[in-house]
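Re: the request from the purification team.
They wanted to know what the chain is likely to look like in 3D before they choose a buffer screen. I agreed to run a prediction and write the result into the notebook, where they can find it.
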Amino acid sequence: MSLNPLRWTHTAKLVAAFGTLYVVWGSTYLAIRVGLEADLPPALFAGARLLPAGLLLLAIARLRGRSLRIAFNEYRIVAVVGVLLLCGGMFSTFLAERVIPSGLAALVVALLPLWVALAESLVPGMDRPTARGYLGLVIGFVGLGVLVAPRLTGISGTRSELVGIGILIVGTWLWTAGSILSKRKPVKVDAMVATGYEMLTAGAVLLAIGTVAGQWPAFALTPKGLAALLYLILIGSCVAFTAFVWLLRNAPASKVMTYAYVNPVIAVFLGWSAGRLGLVPPEPVDGWVIAGMAIIVAGVALTTSAPTRPAELLTAPEPASELAVAGMAESAAQAPDTAD
C-alpha cells in the first residue's frame, strides 16, 4: 500500500479514518493525564492546546480553498458556543483528571449524548427521543450510579474522586448548553473554519484564566509535558478532526457515531495499561468500573441508535445519531455542531 493516503482505496481510507477516530480520541484522556502529571497548570495546558490547534485547523481549511471570512454576528454565536463547549466542557476534563483516572473521566464524558438527548426533550422545538431512546437514558444513568455508588459508600475508589465526577457532570451540562445553542442558532460558516475560531476563542479565554490565576510561574515544559501537548494539538485535534469530517461525508452518520461508545473502552484500557507501565499513577479497573462501563456503553448505544420524534411531526424520524455526531466531537478533540 502506498504511503500517500490520496492513493489508497476507499475501503482503506475508511479503515484508517475509523481507526484514527477510535484510537486517537480514546487516547486524548490519557494524554491529558500525562500532561497534568508533568505538572502543567490546567488552564494554561488547555489553552496552549487549543490556540495552536485552532490556527492549524484554519490553515488547513484555507489550503483546502475554504474562506476564513466570518460575519461578526456569526462569530458571536461561534464564540459563545466555543466557550461553552471548550472552556466549559473540555476544560472540565483537565480539571477533573487532577483527581480521577483518565479512564473514569472518559466514562463520565461518554454520557454526553444522553444529557444532550434529555435536554432536547425538554427544549421546545427540538426532536424528542422515542421510548427506546428514553430507555437508553435510564440505562446510561444507571451506569453512572454504578460508578458513583462505591465511592459514596467507600467500597471502591475514593471520595475525592466524587469531586472530579461532579466537575465532569457540570462540564457535560455546559457542553450540552453549547450543543443546543449551536443547533438553535446554526451558522453558515464551514465546519472546520467554525471549529478553528471556536478553538482560538476558547484558547484565548483559557490562557487569560491561567494568567489571572497566576499559573505562568508553574508552566514549565518537560519532555513528558511537551510530548502530551504536541500530541493533543497535532494528533488529537487536527488529525482526528480531519478524519471525523471526512467520515461524515463518506460514511453513514450512524456508523461514525460508534466512536462515542468505542472511545471510552479504549480510554479505560489505555489508562490501565499506562498505569501498569508507570507512565501515570495506577488506574485500577475493578468490577465496578467494568460494570459501569458496560452499562453506560449500552445506554449510549441504545439512545444514539434510536429514532427521534421531530417536534413538528411533519417529517420522517431521523436517527438520533445524526443529531448527536457533531455534538460529541469536541469531547476530546472538539468539533462543533455545525459539522453536518
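For the purification team: Residues 5-333 form one domain.
Please add any questions underneath this entry.
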